[in-house]
Design goal:
Length: 548
């Protein structure tokens, strides 16, 4: 591909540059200059001052899971329960057998827990399992529970919760490991379905300017088959255009740490477009279902400290073994106890800022202020899902009441991380919420979103500026992937670029969410051009859940 982009504002992954032209020849960036190129390219774009960035790097996303769900019974675009049920009815009319999919919002149901009765009125005989957008809960009907043998006598599995009535009857909502009670009976997706999901997810991300990502779970999870083979096949055929690092899943039931490390070493791919140099630990659940691990009890009548999936001893031993084997460690941690446990385990293996490690903690929702400076001290990256740092309905209904005033003041401390010198990355956790980086950047700057239930800022002192946010979702995230091709605009490098619809440095921060992606160049090829069709539909925080 030969292309000149003229009169453009250039952010190179670290800072704005004085030049106003990018020239691409044979897919490589050959010149960063001003004026017109000496030899014009086959195509010229005059950007009229719009912003050109490196292609965005999503540091925590579930591309194949999201793609598969978009092709199944996809509730992520439904606005409320009635639209969700109408989507379900349409899906039932054109399919047979098990109903799978997901994307429902906990905010649509009292206490965040939907019931089997609602599904039974629509489809009493076909088994249904629909994952919440966060993948931490499942909504099932009685037909599905009957197949799984779930009744009043079924105990909660380790690390899981069966939501029950006052009489102890399962109501149709399963949290965490309880999802597997039904998921184990769902016919597994075939290779073609997973491959289609991967390609659908890649198309969606390309439309938003994303040219590289970290797939946060490469393994069997919540009824999804591992996408490992599909990634390998897509790279072999050339269908995988993006650069991807897959985080290999660390199961919750590991007893022989050395044997598990050996199993993962057999899956490690250190070269190529798809690499598996990272290992994913899910340390706890989420606040909404009171499964996030807290150092003090929840501030509600149910109380409890949440769920810690691993002992501290297990974390220290497994982190040490993986670090010695050369893996980077990728943690899901929501509650302050989970964040603290991860940092303690990193400290035990001697993490230091000068090392070449790429260990990181994603989500960092509730962080004790004493732990904030430890990220920089230990060289651990804070992987931000910025879109959630606002007063959406779930924050109002299912977070703040459970956390209480003090811990509400600890929510998403992005500004504190930046002031403490922590390395920052950003990811979307799609399909939990939109992968649109401009919406996430908007919330990072404003601590609010125009479509949030309450548009006042959530802890405005924890906002970060535009340059910091752009660094996090380009070069900061590329650092976690150990990428040489993404995250920066450099002479001689493959062109991985995203052209925005405006120059956000000239906009009021309250207008950042209006910015869209107009052109995506991935590995020297145009993979999305808004001039050739409408950009992909996005999801606003009103349907956002919490992470996986």
């Amino acid at each position: 591909m030969d292309l000149d982009i003229l009169d453009v504002t250039i952010f190179d992954g670290h800072a704005l540059r004085p030049e106003s032209r990018i020239s691409v020849r044979d897919g490589l960036i050959t010149e960063i200059g001003t004026g017109s190129a000496a030899t014009p390219a086959a195509r010229t774009i005059t950007a009229a001052g719009r912003l050109l960035t490196p292609g965005f790097v999503d540091a925590h996303v579930h591309t194949t899971f999201g793609g598969q769900e978009s092709l199944a019974c996809d509730l992520s675009q439904a606005d409320g329960l009635e639209e969700s049920l109408e989507t379900l009815r349409l899906y039932l009319a054109r399919t047979e057998g098990w109903v799978t999919g997901g994307g429902w919002s906990m905010a649509d149901f009292p206490g965040g827990a939907p019931t089997a009765e609602i599904l039974d009125e629509v489809a009493p005989h076909r088994p249904i399992i629909l994952l919440s957008a966060d993948h931490h809960s499942a909504w099932v009907n009685r037909a599905a529970m009957a197949i799984a043998g779930i009744d009043i006598t079924t105990p909660d599995p380790a690390g899981g919760v069966i939501v029950r009535s006052e009489l102890g009857e399962p109501t149709g909502c399963l949290h965490e490991a309880a999802i597997d009670l039904v998921g184990a009976h769902v016919p597994p997706a075939d290779d073609a379905t997973i491959r289609a999901g991967l390609l659908a997810g890649q198309t969606y991300l390309h439309g938003l300017g994303v040219t590289a990502w970290m797939d946060a779970i490469i393994g069997d999870y919540s009824g999804h088959r591992s996408p490992f083979d599909s990634y390998v096949a897509a790279e072999a055929t050339g269908e995988l255009a993006a650069e991807v690092v897959g985080s290999l899943w660390w199961p919750r039931d590991v007893t022989d740490i050395d044997a598990e490390v050996e199993r993962l070493l057999a899956l490690r791919r250190g070269e190529g477009r798809f690499r598996t140099t990272s290992v994913k630990f899910m340390l706890d659940g989420i606040v909404e279902s009171r499964t996030a691990a807290m150092s003090r009890e929840y501030s509600c009548s149910c109380g409890g400290f949440g769920t810690s999936y691993f002992t501290r001893e297990h974390l220290e031993a497994s982190f040490a073994a993986l670090d010695a084997a050369g893996f980077d460690i990728h943690c899901h941690a929501i509650g302050d106890a989970a964040v603290g446990a991860a940092l303690d385990a990193f400290a035990a293996i001697g993490s230091v800022p000068t090392s070449d490690r790429r260990h990181h903690i994603a989500h960092v929702q509730v962080v004790d202020p004493v732990d904030v400076p430890r990220f920089a001290e230990l060289g651990v990256t804070a992987n931000l899902q910025a879109l959630w740092a606002c007063f959406d309905q779930q924050m109002i209904d299912l977070n703040i009441p459970f956390l209480g005033p003090e811990r509400t003041g600890w929510l998403y401390p992005f500004g504190s991380f930046a002031r403490a010198g922590a390395h920052l990355a950003m990811g979307s956790d799609w399909p939990v919420s939109t992968a649109n980086p401009w919406e996430a950047i908007h919330v990072a700057l404003n601590r609010s979103h125009p479509s949030a239930a309450d548009t006042s800022p959530l802890l405005p002192e924890e906002a970060i500026d535009l340059t910091t946010a752009l660094r996090a979702c380009t070069s900061g995230s590329a650092h976690l992937l150990r990428s040489q091709a993404n995250g920066r605009i450099r002479l001689g490098a493959p062109a991985n670029l995203a052209l925005a619809s405006a120059n956000p440095f000239e906009l009021d921060p309250s207008e950042i969410s209006t910015v869209t992606n107009e052109l995506t160049i991935c590995d020297g090829r145009i993979v999305f051009d808004a001039a050739e069709g409408a950009p992909p539909t996005t999801v606003t925080p009103t349907t956002a859940e919490r992470p996986s």
